[in-house]
Amino acid sequence: MAVADRKRPWYLVLALLGALALGTTGAFSGWNTVALYREPIDPTLFAQGISDEADRAAIVDRFQAYLHALDAAKSRAWPLAVAMLVLGSAVFVAAMRTLGGSKMARNALVQLVIAQGAAYAGCYWLTGDVRDADLRLMEASQTADLHEHVADRRRADEAASTASRMLRAATPIEFVLRSLGSALIVVALTRRRSRDFLESAKKAVEER
User: What is the DSSP letter of 52?
Assistant: First the structure.
């Protein structure tokens, strides 16, 4: 069958789009952590624009606690952040090349997605203290924002409590969905129709 007649499997397209998303978010997450280690942010700058003194102080305290947790976990968090940055960038490049019909890039992409998934799992299980400090910082920021926009203090505190529960529930859900997404991407990339399509695309390029 000619390559023109061979349609790109829909799940291959979704897998490559998913790989682009995972690569981008993974590289962005790794870069954020690397940047914090290289040039830590002044905690007081993070609280700018908050009128309530107590909320402003809470944000500064939580940010300092986050920086302390990040510093204490440097032996774990730094290499994982670098790995996420490098692997995320590599996944993005390999996905783009696979979109162009490269079979070799597909083979590399499968391995890179697996490696990135392992690095992400390592971040999740080995840096729980940093993640918890980050969640506490986001909770303080959410509470301050609600206090700024909701006049009734009691209602604002109730909304902040609900938002906090949702935030903490979202973290393990995100981990499960990301891990499942990585697994589905690998499955889609290794299916016979995906391999056959990329092989035919490669032959078509070689014949030109």
Answer: -
d(C-alpha 80, C-alpha 88), whole Å: 12
pTM: 0.86
Which three-class secondary structure state does DSSP give residue 58?
helix
- Cα–Cα dist 183/113, whole Å: 8
> pLDDT confidence of 44, banded at 50, 70, 90?
confident
Q: What is the DSSP string of 22-42?
A: HHHHHHHHHHHHHHHHHSPPP
8 Å CB contact between 185 and 111: no
Contact between 181 and 18 under an 8 Å Cβ cutoff? The reply is yes
What lies within 8 Å, CB to CB, of 206 at 6+ separation is none
Could you give the CA distance from residue 192 to residue 163 in angstroms, rounded to a whole number? 45
Distance of CA 115 to the CA centre of its chain: 14
Query: By the 8 A CB rule, do 27 and 81 touch?
Result: no
Rounded to a whole number, what is the distance in angstroms from the first to the last CA of the chain? 17
Q: What is the DSSP letter of 150?
A: -
Q: Give the residue ranges of DSSP H helices in 6-152.
A: 10-38, 43-46, 53-72, 74-99, 103-126, 128-149
Cβ neighbourhood burial of 87 (10 Å; 0-12, 13-18, 19+): buried
Share of the chain above pLDDT 90, in %: 71
